[in-house]
Inverse folding.
């Protein structure tokens, strides 16, 4: 399962897919949901109370949830989750609404049906890869402000501050870029500058 802080792939836009299997209509909706609360809101919006079942699966970064919504245990929610996992997607909720057509599918048939429509829906969807960024504070003597701003000309600046002796600039960069940025700052300031990686999840920083 994906963890927070790592790059991950999710859906770029809502998508849907419909298929009839042995006279039962399976209507599938999928969307990116960054929290279980978002997934629940989506479930409420697309579920049809007149349908036989509204089964779903949500996979987040570090947790997952699913529901068979009255289908035999393990025949709907788990196969939907497996479809999300097999497509290597995160922060995604898939809702499969079934309108019973009069023919029972059996446990194996239900697993194949729910997993199959979920997988087809996701494979037809447009995806996007998110690369989380980290917050880095660059610190240098005030007289070297120009060198600092030249160093960050191609990255995202989120703030700056000054003291009587120093300039401090906060930027967001991909984790893989931190070491290169630190080295550029060192070169530009002839070793007088430093970089601090702010660990925002625990509220502390460390010198790089």
């Amino acid at each position: 399962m994906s963890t927070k802080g790592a790059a991950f792939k999710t859906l770029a836009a809502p998508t849907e897919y419909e298929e009839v299997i042995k006279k039962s209509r399976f209507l599938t909706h999928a969307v990116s949901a960054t929290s279980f609360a978002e997934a629940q809101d989506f479930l409420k919006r697309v579920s049809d109370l007149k349908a036989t079942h509204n089964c779903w699966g949500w996979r987040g970064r570090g947790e997952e949830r699913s529901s068979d919504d009255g289908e035999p245990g393990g025949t709907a929610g788990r196969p939907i989750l497996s479809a999300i996992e097999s497509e290597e997607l995160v922060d995604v909720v898939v809702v499969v609404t079934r309108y019973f057509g009069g023919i029972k599918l059996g446990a194996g048939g239900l697993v194949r049906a729910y997993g199959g429509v979920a997988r087809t829906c996701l494979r037809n969807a447009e995806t996007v890869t998110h690369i989380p960024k980290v917050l880095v504070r660059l610190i240098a003597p005030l007289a070297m402000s120009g060198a600092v701003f030249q160093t960050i000309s191609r990255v995202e600046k989120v703030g700056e501050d000054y003291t009587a002796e120093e300039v401090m600039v906060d930027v967001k960069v991909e984790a893989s870029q931190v070491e290169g940025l630190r080295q550029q700052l060192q070169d530009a300031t002839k070793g007088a500058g430093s970089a601090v990686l702010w660990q925002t999840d625990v509220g502390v920083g460390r010198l790089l």
